Amino acid sequence: MPRPLPSALIVGVHLGLLQAGLLLTLSRAISAAHTTYALVLTAWLAGSALGLWSRAPARDLPRALLLGLVAYAAAAAALARVDFAAASPWWFAPAVAAAGLASGTFFAAAVAGGAATGRVFARETYGFLAGTLLAAAGYAFLGRHALLFMPLVTGTILFAPRRPRAAAAALAVLFSGCDDPERVVPAPDRARFGDEVYPLLLRDCAFPACHGDPRRPLFVPGPGRTRLGMPESPLDEPTRAEVDLAYDRARAWLLAEGDEPPPLLHKPGPRAAHEGRDEHGRNVYEDPEAPGLAILRGWAEGQEVSP
């Protein structure tokens, strides 16, 4: 008797979590530039094509799913404590391709089994979109650990298609979230940010190839850099919207993971992989006691900084 295919919807959710999780993990740890997007898209499609051309029967799908989970977990573990490493994301192309292999294998198995591929494709696509949104929401509200936790849950569901109780319990865990206490985003003094911190970030960090790029989680728009709207001159005074956006992005970077220091205070420092390097590769804050770092720490901790 041929092995039944798992739900196309759950497969789509699982694959959406994997692809979005890889993109978010690589963007956080290495680069959010276009090369990371190109890597994930190209390597994922290559893995999918390989799985599709293999014409794998349904019994091969669990192996492809397991390989994808192992590759995903390995990539996540390798980058767990990396903060903007000066490395090429293309080193992780094999892991992305391995994760995408299950996508092509699933459709190959569906075709081999005589399934209505149009219906399977539609359901998998809906699930994939849901998984992508779920990964983004989990990362935003629960942190980077959710990117590893959620694919493990959907993987458990897919590996136990004949155990509805286990699958239902896993789904309940997935959609109920973690038991961690609610995380509150710090809100240091807004006026002080505009007077002291915003000019500092604009000067040292908001280069177009760095945090002047709107795709960066920390985006600092303003005069002489990327602007919001259409000011008469790129050197016009910053608008309220620009300062408010930079303030919201900066305070979000004051959220810490466990015992790790907040990214806004750690990443620019000399002991972090990012090392506060500007677009020319120079370390902006090479000295641990650099005035810029002191201003950031003082604002975040609500302490006055001596001139």
UniProtKB/TrEMBL annotation:
Keyword Membrane set for record: yes
Residue span of region Disordered: 258-289
Organism: Nannocystis radixulma
Transmembrane segments: 7-30, 36-53, 65-84, 90-113, 125-142
Highest taxon in the source lineage: Bacteria
Keywords linked to the UniProt accession: Membrane, Transmembrane, Transmembrane helix
Keyword check for Transcription: no
Bias (Basic and acidic residues): 272-285
Official protein name in the record: Cytochrome c domain-containing protein
